[in-house]
Amino acid sequence: MNKKSTSKKKSVRIMSQAGSGGELHQSVSSNECLTTNQGLPIADNQNTLSIGPRGPQLLEDFILREKITHFDHERIPERVVHARGYAAHGYFQAYEGNSDLTQAAFLNTPQTKTPVFCRFSTVAGSAGSFDTARDVRGFSVKFYTSQGNYDLVGNNIPVFFIQDAIKFPDLIHAVKPEPNKGFPQAQSAHDTFWDFVSLNSEAMHTLMWVMSDRGIPRSLRMMEGFGIHTFRMINERGEAKFVKFHWRPSLGTFSLIWDEAVKLGGADPDFHRRDLFNAIASGDFPEWELSVQAFSEDEANEFDFDVLDPTKLIPEELVPLKPLGKMVLNRNIDNFFAETEQVAFCPSHLVPGIDFSNDPLLQGRLFSYLDTQLSRLGSPNFHQIPINQPKCPFANFQRDGHMQMQVPNGQVANDPNSLDDGSIRENPTHGFHSYPAAEAGSKLRIRPESFADHYTQAKLFFTSLTEPEQRHLANAFAFELGKCNEAKIRRRMLGHLQNIDPTLADVVGNKLGMSGQAEKLKPHVPCKETQPSKPLSQYSVAPKSIAGKKIGVLVTNGSDATLIAAIKKAAKAEQATVELIAPKIGTTEDSKGKELHPDHFLDGAPSCMFDCVIIAPESSQVPSLAEQASATDWVRDAYAHLKVVGFTAESRPLFEKGSVPFDNEPGVLELAKGKVDDFIEAAKMHRIWDRESKVR
Ligand code: HDE
């Protein structure tokens, strides 16, 4: 317990009633003691009311019953998808006015910092699953604008599995734990998922993304975001353009290696949230640039895919990105439940100047999110929960309902009325107008022919990747299909891969021991040839930098003080962080007798938790370290995960014991006394890809 929480006066924080004039966060500094929810001072919070010291206990104990009853009702239904999430506060600021494009105020007032709340999530796992599962990541941003809340509810992958909302429940049922057994958890590597997607060739493009390194991000701070659907932006003159939204992290987009992701699942199931929380807590605020690809309806008609089809992206070579502004996350949550759990995103939360398109997936979402909030949060008044409240004035004649937190005044709750001259009215000038798109046609249940090409962009993605990225993608397909019990599903999937790229199908088929067994699947539209698009590959455009990354330094009592100081200084200059890992967590001393405070206990901090590592034990400690599996595994894994490894001459026995090469080995650098420049330069490469063929 920290000092603050033991303080009698400041320990309890309550919510005052929103709308009754009180602040949302209130520290009960004036409270002398704990009270019941009715304000009754509590004399004893440790013992139940009973007859005599050994009972029986009395039903009369209303204090016990209030406390236990509240506890019994603490949980609400978790989100049916995106249950596991983490969030932070921040702001969005436009670079300049964008009035040619949109009338949205928050994109036209560069002097204003619009508050935001941003929640990241995995899709398939339940709230208690682990962060590094292979999955799509949610990327939701609530902008508290002067014109009301705008929610941009996107993912870290620019396309989606299905083209029509009516398929969504089936997709999710297929990826969730199989209903007869209740597992696997947070995994797509099982029969129902691959059965479903292999029966839906429209899923192929998104599958390629999820099986690529994008499915295992290194950090939430190093992840792109996409609105996926085509939206509209409308300016003051009523002119509309179609837009696709992109978020780009300033740190660059990086991923884990599969073996790291698996090990991190055990070593630190909270790896991504801890990383985000710690970065913000230390003042290293993550940033993303918001851009749009804006294009006219006429331009859209020229593309050889349909912009209403959410399984398609628009290559940046066709429509470049227009940067609009940046988002900075600079404040951690105060309370996980009140904020991260209760935040309710809805793609239908719009502001004037932004509107929908007829993307059938988007149209289905417009219904789903409001509906799910009603069941999850239990009341149509969920907008009154502090995290969901607009920060601009809001008022209407909607009334009552479960958990009404406001106390509306007056006789009148209807519009129009003539009883209250001062009562609020609609405002045709500043109010929201839907874009008056002309629509006509017959009522049908039919998929447009323009949605029928399911393979071309899957191939576009694959051929745009670097060789290591392609290799990882093939390995991921093999891993996932290898977990499929039904051979017919594996054969069907190999058939799709054959239609995307025969070499890929061969590699995966080979790994599965199923060469030549791909099912023949006749594509509705055969794969067309395309030019690779560089931005689709993370590694082609990765910045040479270690900003935001973590250097793990393995130290012992007596480790070289000069080296530790040098690496800390160099890391700071590069905006990276250093963490010390030691065989014992208690305070120890460096070579100059100065106190060393390890951040981690070696047994609990495998090297997969760091981006690059330095091995710097004091020489007399090396023999005993070399006897510990946690130390030799540390070195072996760092090497096998293609990390840049720095080491002192004394630590050679650790490499020998772990059979890790270190002489003339690219990316494995012996550090001359206190010299870390070469190590830092090498670490900017992120990984030594050429090593992969040796270790895997
Ligand atoms: Fe969602 N989705 N979704 N989704 N989605 C939800 O809403 C749904 C889709 C996305 O951090 C749910 O509040 C349908 C695409 C994110 O709170 C639910 C369809 C994209 C989040 C729902 C889709 C997303 C959700 C569950 C197909 C990327 C987490 C809890 C028509 C553009 C939001 C909730 C948060 C959450 C429905 C497809 C992103 C059930 C019906 C495409 C990031 O309403």
Automatic annotation (TrEMBL):
<comment type="function">
    <text>Decomposes hydrogen peroxide into water and oxygen; serves to protect cells from the toxic effects of hydrogen peroxide.</text>
</comment>
<keyword id="KW-0349">Heme</keyword>
<dbReference type="InterPro" id="IPR011614">
    <property type="entry name" value="Catalase_core"/>
</dbReference>
<keyword id="KW-0376">Hydrogen peroxide</keyword>
<dbReference type="InterPro" id="IPR002226">
    <property type="entry name" value="Catalase_haem_BS"/>
</dbReference>
<feature type="compositionally biased region" description="Basic residues">
    <location>
        <begin position="1"/>
        <end position="12"/>
    </location>
</feature>
<keyword id="KW-0479">Metal-binding</keyword>
<feature type="region of interest" description="Disordered">
    <location>
        <begin position="1"/>
        <end position="29"/>
    </location>
</feature>
<keyword id="KW-0560">Oxidoreductase</keyword>
<feature type="binding site" description="axial binding residue">
    <location>
        <position position="369"/>
    </location>
    <ligand>
        <name>heme</name>
    </ligand>
</feature>
<feature type="active site">
    <location>
        <position position="82"/>
    </location>
</feature>
<dbReference type="InterPro" id="IPR043156">
    <property type="entry name" value="Catalase_clade2_helical"/>
</dbReference>
<dbReference type="GO" id="GO:0020037">
    <property type="term" value="F:heme binding"/>
</dbReference>
<feature type="binding site">
    <location>
        <position position="365"/>
    </location>
    <ligand>
        <name>heme</name>
    </ligand>
</feature>
<dbReference type="Pfam" id="PF18011">
    <property type="entry name" value="Catalase_C"/>
</dbReference>
<keyword id="KW-0408">Iron</keyword>
<dbReference type="InterPro" id="IPR018028">
    <property type="entry name" value="Catalase"/>
</dbReference>
<dbReference type="Pfam" id="PF00199">
    <property type="entry name" value="Catalase"/>
</dbReference>
<dbReference type="InterPro" id="IPR029062">
    <property type="entry name" value="Class_I_gatase-like"/>
</dbReference>
<dbReference type="GO" id="GO:0046872">
    <property type="term" value="F:metal ion binding"/>
</dbReference>
<dbReference type="InterPro" id="IPR020835">
    <property type="entry name" value="Catalase_sf"/>
</dbReference>
<dbReference type="InterPro" id="IPR024708">
    <property type="entry name" value="Catalase_AS"/>
</dbReference>
<dbReference type="GO" id="GO:0004096">
    <property type="term" value="F:catalase activity"/>
</dbReference>
<feature type="binding site">
    <location>
        <position position="79"/>
    </location>
    <ligand>
        <name>heme</name>
    </ligand>
</feature>
<dbReference type="InterPro" id="IPR010582">
    <property type="entry name" value="Catalase_immune_responsive"/>
</dbReference>
<feature type="binding site">
    <location>
        <position position="376"/>
    </location>
    <ligand>
        <name>heme</name>
    </ligand>
</feature>
<dbReference type="InterPro" id="IPR041399">
    <property type="entry name" value="Catalase_large_C"/>
</dbReference>
<dbReference type="GO" id="GO:0006979">
    <property type="term" value="P:response to oxidative stress"/>
</dbReference>
<dbReference type="GO" id="GO:0042744">
    <property type="term" value="P:hydrogen peroxide catabolic process"/>
</dbReference>
<keyword id="KW-0575">Peroxidase</keyword>
<comment type="similarity">
    <text>Belongs to the catalase family. HPII subfamily.</text>
</comment>
<dbReference type="InterPro" id="IPR024712">
    <property type="entry name" value="Catalase_clade2"/>
</dbReference>
<feature type="domain" description="Catalase core">
    <location>
        <begin position="35"/>
        <end position="423"/>
    </location>
</feature>
<protein>
    <recommendedName>
        <fullName>Catalase</fullName>
        <ecNumber>1.11.1.6</ecNumber>
    </recommendedName>
</protein>
<dbReference type="GO" id="GO:0005829">
    <property type="term" value="C:cytosol"/>
</dbReference>
<dbReference type="Pfam" id="PF06628">
    <property type="entry name" value="Catalase-rel"/>
</dbReference>
<feature type="active site">
    <location>
        <position position="155"/>
    </location>
</feature>
<feature type="binding site">
    <location>
        <position position="119"/>
    </location>
    <ligand>
        <name>heme</name>
    </ligand>
</feature>
<feature type="binding site">
    <location>
        <position position="168"/>
    </location>
    <ligand>
        <name>heme</name>
    </ligand>
</feature>
